[in-house]
Write a structure and sequence with these properties.
The structure is a single chain. This protein has 364 residues and is of the alpha/beta class. It has two domains: 236 residues, Type I PLP-dependent aspartate aminotransferase-like (Major domain) (Aspartate Aminotransferase, domain 2, 3-Layer(aba) Sandwich), CATH 3.40.640; 117 residues, Aspartate Aminotransferase, domain 1. It is built from 13 helices and 13 strands. Belongs to the DegT/DnrJ/EryC1 family. Pfam families: DegT_DnrJ_EryC1 (PF01041). Keywords: Aminotransferase, Pyridoxal phosphate, Transferase.
């Protein structure tokens, strides 16, 4: 393809020596599960998120969500509010804990619509999952105010927002517990699966650790029936290297986003709307267009890769439509926009000339 949606090989080449040394070091030590690399990365990542935050590495982002929700020990038959426009894991984690989902519509920033969120809160709602979608921080001030008013637990899903800030504060440091994914395509991605739980509540994070480590904090100690979810040392070593570059890579994403805003502002596209108090890291740059098929055809002809995030709103998928574990409710924006949203190439791999080429095609 002339312009790649994502180019992980180019990223690797830019830090090849450091990555190769990190991998070799793990192999040389032959400590592949747990150990100093994982512990060091947990400390470095928690410091990156903010003061007072502790971190726990796990197998992947979905595991992190499932463990976080289980650790909250919500009452049986509790309902958890989840955005209608997000990756399926945000809702799967609720169902896999034996709880019920109620979907909340998205607003112009693609996060939880505050009006619809308040309307969806009923007596059986006990928690909500806040997804900082596309690298755009959700409106945490109003969300936390509602959570306090209705005594709701807050789980932050930060899988697409490594380093994003709301009012100067990193996402992942607002809720009761937060989760991150290190899937390879993320702003901070491993060379395989990986995930992280973070929280300012030490006892809650210890409970998460207990769940993730076969129900105990020491080997052969099983206080509860847990599971096996661990971040391996190889991925931790790779992520330690990449964490040192994350701010630079995010800065480049912001430059690309600014080029899109300037180049497409007068065209027939609805661009992301972001309040001034939010610092986005642009995991994805998503626009809405009336005739998406025609736009995709233009981009395909120009050999420009695109993505769809997400082509079907979760309430409309077979897994969640008219199911007993879903409290049915309308999500008008998510349903109307699913046929219009389009993800443009985004990442530090893009050269200015490539971004200009994309804009030129879209301006036709």
């Amino acid at each position: 393809m002339a312009v790649k949606f994502l180019d992980l090989h180019k990223q690797y080449l830019s830090i090849k020596t450091e990555i190769d040394n990190a991998i070799f070091s793990v192999i040389q030590k032959s400590a592949f599960v747990g150990g100093e690399e994982v512990e060091a990365f947990e400390k470095e990542f928690s410091s990156f998120i903010g003061e007072g935050v502790e971190a726990l590495g796990v197998g992947n982002g979905t595991d992190a969500l499932e463990i976080a929700i289980r650790a909250l020990e919500l009452p049986k038959d509790s309902v958890v509010l989840v955005p209608a426009n997000t990756f399926v894991a945000s809702a799967e984690a609720v169902i896999n804990n034996g709880l019920k989902v109620k979907f909340v519509d998205c607003g112009e920033d693609y996060s939880l619509d505050i009006v619809d969120l308040k309307d969806k809160i009923t007596s059986d709602v006990r928690a909500l999952v806040v997804v900082h979608l596309y690298g755009i921080p959700a409106n945490m001030e109003e969300i936390l105010a509602l959570a306090r008013e209705y005594d709701l637990r807050v789980i932050e899903d930060c899988a697409q927002a490594h380093g994003a800030r709301f009012n100067g504060q990193r996402v992942g440091s607002f809720g009761d517990v937060a989760t991150f994914s290190f899937y390879p395509g993320k702003n901070l991605g491993a060379y395989g699966d990986g995930g992280m739980l973070v929280s300012k509540d030490s006892s809650l994070l210890e409970h998460c650790r207990e769940i993730a480590h076969h129900g105990g904090l020491e080997k052969y100690q099983h206080n509860i029936v847990g599971r096996n979810s661990r971040l391996d040392a190889m991925q931790a070593a790779i992520l330690r290297v990449k964490l040192r570059y994350l701010e630079v890579w995010n800065a480049r994403r912001k430059e690309v986003a600014q080029m899109y805003f300037e180049g497409l502002s007068n065209r027939d596209f609805i661009l992301p709307k972001v309040a001034n108090n939010r610092e986005c890291v642009w995991h994805l740059f998503v626009v809405r267009c009336v005739n998406r098929a025609a736009v995709i055809e233009l981009l395909n002809q120009a050999r420009i890769q695109i993505g769809l995030h997400y082509p079907i709103a979760l309430p409309n998928t077979p897994a969640f439509c008219k199911k007993p574990y879903v409290i049915q409710s309308q999500c008008k924006n998510a349903s109307a926009w699913q046929d219009k949203i389009l993800s443009l190439p985004m990442g530090e791999h893009l050269e200015n000339d490539e971004v200009k080429d994309i804009i030129e095609v879209l301006r036709c």
